Amino acid sequence: xxxxxxxxxxxxxxxxxxxxxxxxxxxxxxxxxxxxxxxxxxxxxxxxxxxxxxxxxxxxxxxxxxxxxxxxxxxxxxxxxxxxxxxxxxxxxxxxx
Length: 97
Prior knowledge:
- By secondary structure, the chain is mostly helical.
- Helix content is about 45%, strand content about 10%.
- It has helices spanning about 5-10, 30-35, 60-80, 85-95, and strands at about 20, 50.
- It has a two-stranded parallel ribbon.
- The protein is globular and about 45 Å long.
- InterPro entries: Helicase_C-like, P-loop_NTPase, SNF2/RAD54-like_C.
């Protein structure tokens, strides 16, 4: 299947596919994850391989890095005990992304 991330990320199951090639990285990493998850559905029997096409020395590199920083920030925030939150550090990290 060849679909854009937005079109392929909503309302369809692609359990017959075992390779996903994302050619249009989104600034919101959850849009990409949503598209990837179209193959990870009940009925999938194969290992799914995800390939992200990113052109060297392009804006896509920056978009990919920003998306990875957003995912890392979300992981960091989900591990935090509310009583020990360093709000200044979290706000600084969020503003850097």
